[in-house]
């Protein structure tokens, strides 16, 4: 078989300790996740010849690779915010298919919550005041304010309501209730969401992601390794990536995210349609992200996201379970959360999600899933379609 035609499988997945993790460093969480993912795969560390990491150290991912005792011949440090890991998974899959690597380990770890509690960093760090951002930074144009402006525009254009946005948070908590690893598992109501303290109009606190510690790892391998792995393979069927803008003034339409392009590419390359997906794992730093990404991935028409998320459609037992672990709104959000989306998608396809396991209408396990990460303020997107069997 030609190396350039090799299929790519997810062989191992794992979480590090997550939630409230006060003792370990980010390097420790990287190591925990990497060891656990390798153990999950049943493969030895020696097979890993590719490595991807971002957001840690001065020379990411070189420092992380050294800490893990790896000397990879293929490396990636792509950093495009929350979309980083779907984009990096796409790069890794291409490298494996082309024979540039055989087994690529993607690892992330962050102590974002613990660092603030310990005074190692503050909560309101700016993303930068140089380059194009210098024209926005003086006006207090924070990341959350940009998402809030986009949400307000969608409300203006399409009549999307605060109650519909709140329904996203309610259903995320409903998923988290069955996930013992979730940081917040207690149910909330639409009134709870609407009645919380205002953070950035229209977002109250429960419209916004939590801040946690945690890490995870995903091991991608060439199909040649599949007979040796310890679990049933989950295949990478198609990927897509896209970058849109850096400044709000260059964003042509606040109601359209870059997932409109990355999603189309991923589904086309996978040869499947959005309607065939059994579950969706979507980056949800804010409730609006979930709603507009569902539109842009093609699960409903533009402007119909509000109606789509009503009546429990994306919650447990809904027609399209979304963010089945509770997502960034309830389970964990230690920073660039995109790798967690891939871990959860694989866990669901394997049928290993326990109390928050999703099923198809006929009671069988999911067969197809999409993971779509968003970076910056809808600046970038990476989408990965996965399938089992």
UniProtKB/TrEMBL annotation:
Pfam families xref list: Thiolase_C_1 (PF22691)
Domain Thiolase C-terminal: 240-388
Matching CDD domains: SCP-x_thiolase
UniProt-recorded name of the protein: Acetyl-CoA acetyltransferase
């Amino acid at each position: 078989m030609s190396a350039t035609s090799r299929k790519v499988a997810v062989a191992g997945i794992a979480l590090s300790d997550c939630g409230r993790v006060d003792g370990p460093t980010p390097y420790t969480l990287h190591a925990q996740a990497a060891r656990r993912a390798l153990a999950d795969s049943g493969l030895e560390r020696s097979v890993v010849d590719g490595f991807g990491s971002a957001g840690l150290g001065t020379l990411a991912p070189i420092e992380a690779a050294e800490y893990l005792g790896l000397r990879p011949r293929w490396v990636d440090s792509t950093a495009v915010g929350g979309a980083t890991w779907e984009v990096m998974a796409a790069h890794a899959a291409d490298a494996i298919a082309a024979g540039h690597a055989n087994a690529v380990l993607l690892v992330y770890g962050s102590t974002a919550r613990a660092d603030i509690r310990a005074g190692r960093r503050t909560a309101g760090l700016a993303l930068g005041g140089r380059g194009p951002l210098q024209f926005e930074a003086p006006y207090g144009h924070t990341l959350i304010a940009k998402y809030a402006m986009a949400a307000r525009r969608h409300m203006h254009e399409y009549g999307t309501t605060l109650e519909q946005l709140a329904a996203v948070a309610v259903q995320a908590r409903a998923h988290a209730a069955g996930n013992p690893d979730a940081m917040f598992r207690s149910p909330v109501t639409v009134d709870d969401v609407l009645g919380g303290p205002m953070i950035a109009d229209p977002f109250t606190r429960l419209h916004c992601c939590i801040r946690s510690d945690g890490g995870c790892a995903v091991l991608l391998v060439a199909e040649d390794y599949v007979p040796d792995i310890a679990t049933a393979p989950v295949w990478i069927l198609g990927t897509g990536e896209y970058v849109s803008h850096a400044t709000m003034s260059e964003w042509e339409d606040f109601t359209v995210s870059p997932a409109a392009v990355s999603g189309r590419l991923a589904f086309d390359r996978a040869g499947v349609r959005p309607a065939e997906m059994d579950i969706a794992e979507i980056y949800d730093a804010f409730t609006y992200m979930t709603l507009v990404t569902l539109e842009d991935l093609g699960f409903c028409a533009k402007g119909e996201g509000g109606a789509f998320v009503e009546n429990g459609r994306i919650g447990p037992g809904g027609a399209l379970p979304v963010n089945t672990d509770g997502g960034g709104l309830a389970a964990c959000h230690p920073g660039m959360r995109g790798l967690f989306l891939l871990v959860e998608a694989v866990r669901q396809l394997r049928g290993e999600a326990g109390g928050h396991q999703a099923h198809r209408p006929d009671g069988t396990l999911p067969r197809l899933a999409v993971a779509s990460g968003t970076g910056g303020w809808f600046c970038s997107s990476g989408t990965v379609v996965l399938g089992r069997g």
